[in-house]
């Protein structure tokens, strides 16, 4: 059977890994796909020294690949929104299938892209856009298709997880570990997307859409970063039997869907709490299967290439399939997506970790307890530490029972207004993941 021709746009870390895996495992891949897969052209501005591209044609214009009539599948690995979108939409317009690892593109423009692909009868595959080499999209879309998914929770940004792991294990400051993460190449020179949760929110948006059958709605995801966390918070959480993770949570509720990324206290004995370093993990809870966990490398050349090449194989397998009988892009048929709304974070109900810096005066704890009690917030546990030498302030650490976020916001405003409380209060949400 005639080999399938692939064009790769971008020969950076992931593009280079994809090329190398396709070359190294060509025979095994052909056995799985049922026909050969040849890289017919590569678009790149800089050759990757890790790749021996041999006689493979190259160009510095991605649209040479998009418009190449010999190419069946365009692999977009350049990243970003603008040029990548033009490449993907151009490939679709030319009747070519697309494979991409671009989570930002899918999260923000996926609805438009999938509509165009459906109209042209082509596939857009994007397994590598979430959690690198972990096949979480395939698991949600196909392996768990019998289930009503109740919730998804995941550590889906390795940079943030590396920082929090180092803070916990070695007592280092956020700033110190971030500098190392940048030196190691885990974080960009501008680390905003990683440490502020934007990268994780892109990925969570995709997971939620596939889990619950709703349109992609990145603009409605609540995002909170880890920049305000201190080593003290990490240690206090540990003393209370918890670990802090930068978690993405998507949960189906009766009146809508929760879609949120933020630092989270998780009981130390939970599997997710023990995912360390740059590793990723996603836990999915379905009504039939219960809880399942997917763990592995969330980034890197060949782990991500593993997912890209798997998508290429999937596309090859379905080239002759009736487009109406293919697995839908977002798991549910396009005309059957739900209008279940994404909830405001104020509607979310969780337990909370609160850290206050109090002046060393009698009766402070009583005032704090009264404010919480008057707003129906019950305290589960409380720790009061010795006054700190440098400022004489007493750290007070509370764990509350579950309460709606809007009620907690009112209570926090009242606590911060107390004369005895210095500076803003630290709040971290708590998830039991039962």
UniProtKB/TrEMBL annotation:
Keywords recorded for this protein, A-Z: Amino-acid biosynthesis, Methionine biosynthesis, NADP, Oxidoreductase, Threonine biosynthesis
Sequence similarity: Belongs to the homoserine dehydrogenase family.
Pfam families reported for this sequence: ACT, Homoserine_dh, NAD_binding_3
EC number: 1.1.1.3
Family matches, as PROSITE patterns: ACT, HOMOSER_DHGENASE
Domain ACT per the UniProt entry, residue ranges: 353-429
Protein name according to UniProt: Homoserine dehydrogenase
Keyword presence, Signal: no
Catalytic activity: L-homoserine + NAD(+) = L-aspartate 4-semialdehyde + NADH + H(+)
Amino-acid biosynthesis among keywords: yes
Pathway: Amino-acid biosynthesis; L-methionine biosynthesis via de novo pathway; L-homoserine from L-aspartate: step 3/3; Amino-acid biosynthesis; L-threonine biosynthesis; L-threonine from L-aspartate: step 3/5
């Amino acid at each position: 059977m005639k080999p399938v021709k692939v064009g790769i746009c971008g020969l950076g870390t992931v593009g280079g890994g994809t090329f190398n895996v396709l070359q190294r495992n060509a025979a095994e891949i052909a056995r799985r796909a049922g026909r050969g897969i040849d890289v017919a052209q590569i678009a790149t501005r800089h050759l990757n020294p890790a790749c021996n591209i041999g006689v493979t044609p190259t160009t510095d214009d991605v649209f040479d690949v998009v418009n190449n009539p010999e190419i069946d599948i365009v692999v977009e690995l350049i990243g970003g929104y603008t040029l990548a979108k033009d490449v993907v939409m151009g490939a679709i317009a030319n009747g070519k299938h697309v494979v991409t690892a671009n989570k930002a593109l899918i999260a923000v423009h996926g609805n438009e892209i999938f509509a165009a692909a459906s109209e042209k009868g082509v596939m857009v595959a994007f397994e590598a856009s979430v959690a690198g080499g972990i096949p979480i999209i395939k698991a949600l879309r196909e392996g768990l298709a019998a289930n009503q998914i109740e919730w998804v929770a995941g550590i889906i940004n390795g940079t943030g997880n590396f920082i929090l792991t180092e803070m916990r294990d070695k007592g280092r400051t956020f700033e110190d570990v971030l500098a190392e993460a940048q030196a190691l190449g885990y974080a960009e020179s501008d680390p905003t997307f990683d440490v502020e949760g934007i990268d994780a929110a892109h990925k969570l948006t995709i997971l939620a859409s596939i889990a619950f059958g709703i349109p992609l709605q990145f603009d409605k995801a609540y995002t909170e970063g880890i920049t305000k966390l201190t080593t003290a918070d990490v240690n206090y959480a540990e003393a209370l039997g918890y670990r802090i993770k930068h978690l993405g949570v998507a949960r189906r509720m009766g009146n809508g869907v929760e879609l949120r990324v933020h630092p989270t206290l998780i009981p130390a004995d939970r599997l997710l709490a023990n995912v360390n370093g740059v590793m990723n993990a996603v836990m999915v809870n379905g009504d039939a299967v219960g809880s399942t966990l997917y763990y592995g490398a969330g980034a890197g050349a060949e782990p991500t290439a593993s997912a890209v090449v798997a998508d290429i194989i999937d596309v090859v397998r379905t080239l002759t399939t009736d487009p109406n009988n293919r697995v839908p892009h977002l798991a549910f048929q396009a005309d059957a997506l739900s209008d279940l709304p994404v909830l405001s974070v104020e509607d979310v109900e969780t337990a909370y970790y609160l850290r206050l810096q109090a002046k060393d005066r009698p009766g402070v704890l009583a005032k704090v307890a009264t404010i919480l009690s008057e707003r129906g917030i019950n305290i589960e546990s409380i720790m009061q530490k010795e006054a700190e030498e440098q400022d004489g302030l007493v750290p007070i650490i509370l764990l509350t029972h579950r309460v709606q976020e809007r009620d907690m916001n009112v209570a926090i405003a009242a606590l911060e207004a107390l004369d005895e409380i210095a500076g803003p209060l630290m709040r971290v949400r708590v998830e039991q993941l039962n």
